[in-house]
Amino acid sequence: MATLLEVSGVSVTFDGFRAINNLSIAMAEPELRAVIGPNGAGKTTFMDIVTGKTRPDEGRVLWTERQIDLLKLSESQIATAGIGRKFQKPTVFEDQSVRDNLAMALANKRGPLSVLMWKASAADRARIQDLAEEVGLAARLDHRAGHLSHGQKQWLEIGMLLAQDPRLLLVDEPAAGMTPAEREHTTALLTRAARSRAVMVIEHDMEFIRRLDCRVTVLHEGSVLAEGSLDHVTQDQQVIDVYLGR
Amino acid sequence: MKIDVSSPAAPAPVRRSFLRDNPSVLWFMGLLGLFTLGVTVLSEGMGVGVISTSLVKVLGMTLCLCLIAVAMDVVWGYCGILSLGHFAFFGLGGYAIGMWLMYARTEIVIRDNLGRGTIPPTEAEVSEAVAAQIFGVVGSSELPLIWSFAGSLPFQLAMVVLVPGLLALVFGWLAFRSRVTGVYLSILTQAMTLALSLYLFQNDTGLRGNNGLSGLQNIPGSLHLPQSVISVWFFWASAFALGAGYLLFAWVVSGKFGSVIKAIRDNEARVRFLGYNVEGYKLFVFTLTGIISGIAGALYYPQAGIINPAEIAPIASIYLAVWVAIGGRGRLYGAVIGAALVSLLSSWLTGGGAPNIDLGFYRIVWTDWWLVLLGLGFVLVTLFFPKGIGGLFDYLVRKS
Ligand SMILES: Nc1ncnc2c1ncn2[C@@H]1O[C@H](COP(=O)(O)OP(=O)(O)O)[C@@H](O)[C@H]1O
Ligand SMILES: [Mg+2]
């Protein structure tokens, strides 16, 4: 297991408020990791930093064995370097069909001219079909994404992530607002995806985390409070005090 | 807005051919062809003479306005950039072709006059006389540097594309790179337009200040032909340009490129995280539509006969946005409907075509009330028909 992502000593301040405080986290490949922590702990901000949306005041973010400095890349460059992200609020392109949403995410050339000339090859079509089946939307390929249920939108977004074929998936609260059956499907999706990739999941729901059955990082006030198996961190007194005990 | 969750959307499985997937393009081409044929047959110059030459010109100009409206729809309706500057590109295209029209025609006239003497004139004499003739109105007799190649049609044709294209490219690069979006971007495009028009109003910019360029309806090389014939030629050229432009844009907005720019319109941050260089796409669309706007302008002004800096004034670009909004954003034929309807209505009402209405206590004079009517129409459409007139087609299609 080689280190894929190495975040070390990162801090971010918003108007004098330290949202991320000397945070260090590493991800291996493949690995499934859950990140938990109270609201405002800095979980989403951490993903913002890795994906280039927020620039940290200090610290390093290195990517792959080639030690690429992600802080020097733009959002789109980071995405093409192999990091995919699912947002807390499901954001699919509602005006467009499920097929078009997936086609946009496919790992093809992204320059305006290549995209202008693009025609779905047999391989592209097969890949879209596979992805749709994987996330359970095969019957809905030609529906408008805006017509999907909340849970289906979340899956479509996960499907779009997989279509990018990233080495690291950052998934922010995927199970929020899902029915128990939908949650189960989502867990299965993520564990399958993590067989060949690094997947980091932010979640609040302890039952969901338990089913993921993976290493857990607890964030609090912008830094790591505890890390280890779910049983290990839930028995940690500090974690109980700031998070579980409330 | 009512969304029917249960009804499945129309299935559109494998992409077959572009035209089969976009039947509205075929419809549009057919109607445009019929319209062109009809106007030709009824025209004074080529047909039975029911349609006067001046009306042929108005119709040809309207086609050019439809073309810039289609470009506006792509940049605004599809890509979400509310540009209030595309008429600047339109005007620049007009100036570029106007320079050749004016220079070449003046040169022919001067050679004619000088040639009557016993000694043939030298090139320098001709050029001096042309300069004096064109720039006399602004108290100069020297040919400005930018007119160096005004006598060359290929050069000025290249300028029709290059000048608007380069301005759009440079302006867009600066604006998009600093991630200016929304209202701020609109204001910036408006400022560009205003600056350009103020600059052109000055006498020493080499484009005859507020006099602008005139006599553009006289085509060098065809000076012996009557306007009735030339007007039909330009009508054809405008119809061809609209058809070609429509086809080009319909192709651009279909398929994955269209998907990406619509996605940029709806959530550009998300598109970045998919790995697309959003700024590059915006720049591409802004520049391409700027170039097409320039071409539309180059066809419009020879029919109008005159171009001056007032044409580039910011208000023109605002009208453009109003046309597209009224016609229906995000569907190309909507832009055509909006531009044709509003601009024809405008020239009918303000050109004295419509009878003023006497209410006894008050006389409605359309030249005064037209703008109020337009403003009201805009507000009503925005409030009650956000999809514009083009949105009506959705009901028709759903019914059948
Ligand atoms: N762009 C921003 N500007 C100001 N404050 C922010 C910004 N983004 C996040 N914060 C603050 O940083 C803290 C961490 O937020 P976030 O990362 O969203 O928490 P979590 O996802 O763990 O609930 C919160 O207090 C939030 O208000
Ligand atoms: Mg969050």
From TrEMBL, chain A:
<dbReference type="InterPro" id="IPR051120">
    <property type="entry name" value="ABC_AA/LPS_Transport"/>
</dbReference>
<keyword id="KW-0813">Transport</keyword>
<dbReference type="InterPro" id="IPR027417">
    <property type="entry name" value="P-loop_NTPase"/>
</dbReference>
<keyword id="KW-0547">Nucleotide-binding</keyword>
<keyword id="KW-0067">ATP-binding</keyword>
<dbReference type="Pfam" id="PF00005">
    <property type="entry name" value="ABC_tran"/>
</dbReference>
<protein>
    <submittedName>
        <fullName>Urea ABC transporter ATP-binding protein UrtD</fullName>
    </submittedName>
</protein>
<dbReference type="InterPro" id="IPR003593">
    <property type="entry name" value="AAA+_ATPase"/>
</dbReference>
<feature type="domain" description="ABC transporter">
    <location>
        <begin position="5"/>
        <end position="246"/>
    </location>
</feature>
<dbReference type="GO" id="GO:0005886">
    <property type="term" value="C:plasma membrane"/>
</dbReference>
<dbReference type="InterPro" id="IPR017781">
    <property type="entry name" value="ABC_transptr_urea_ATP-bd_UrtD"/>
</dbReference>
<dbReference type="GO" id="GO:0016887">
    <property type="term" value="F:ATP hydrolysis activity"/>
</dbReference>
<dbReference type="GO" id="GO:0005524">
    <property type="term" value="F:ATP binding"/>
</dbReference>
<dbReference type="InterPro" id="IPR003439">
    <property type="entry name" value="ABC_transporter-like_ATP-bd"/>
</dbReference>
Automatic annotation (TrEMBL), chain B:
<feature type="transmembrane region" description="Helical">
    <location>
        <begin position="306"/>
        <end position="325"/>
    </location>
</feature>
<protein>
    <submittedName>
        <fullName>Urea ABC transporter permease subunit UrtC</fullName>
    </submittedName>
</protein>
<keyword id="KW-1133">Transmembrane helix</keyword>
<dbReference type="GO" id="GO:0005886">
    <property type="term" value="C:plasma membrane"/>
</dbReference>
<feature type="transmembrane region" description="Helical">
    <location>
        <begin position="84"/>
        <end position="104"/>
    </location>
</feature>
<keyword id="KW-1003">Cell membrane</keyword>
<dbReference type="InterPro" id="IPR043428">
    <property type="entry name" value="LivM-like"/>
</dbReference>
<feature type="transmembrane region" description="Helical">
    <location>
        <begin position="280"/>
        <end position="300"/>
    </location>
</feature>
<feature type="transmembrane region" description="Helical">
    <location>
        <begin position="153"/>
        <end position="176"/>
    </location>
</feature>
<keyword id="KW-0472">Membrane</keyword>
<feature type="transmembrane region" description="Helical">
    <location>
        <begin position="332"/>
        <end position="349"/>
    </location>
</feature>
<feature type="transmembrane region" description="Helical">
    <location>
        <begin position="183"/>
        <end position="201"/>
    </location>
</feature>
<dbReference type="InterPro" id="IPR017778">
    <property type="entry name" value="ABC_transptr_urea_perm_UrtC"/>
</dbReference>
<feature type="transmembrane region" description="Helical">
    <location>
        <begin position="25"/>
        <end position="43"/>
    </location>
</feature>
<dbReference type="Pfam" id="PF02653">
    <property type="entry name" value="BPD_transp_2"/>
</dbReference>
<feature type="transmembrane region" description="Helical">
    <location>
        <begin position="55"/>
        <end position="78"/>
    </location>
</feature>
<dbReference type="InterPro" id="IPR001851">
    <property type="entry name" value="ABC_transp_permease"/>
</dbReference>
<feature type="transmembrane region" description="Helical">
    <location>
        <begin position="233"/>
        <end position="253"/>
    </location>
</feature>
<keyword id="KW-0812">Transmembrane</keyword>
<feature type="transmembrane region" description="Helical">
    <location>
        <begin position="369"/>
        <end position="397"/>
    </location>
</feature>
<dbReference type="GO" id="GO:0015658">
    <property type="term" value="F:branched-chain amino acid transmembrane transporter activity"/>
</dbReference>
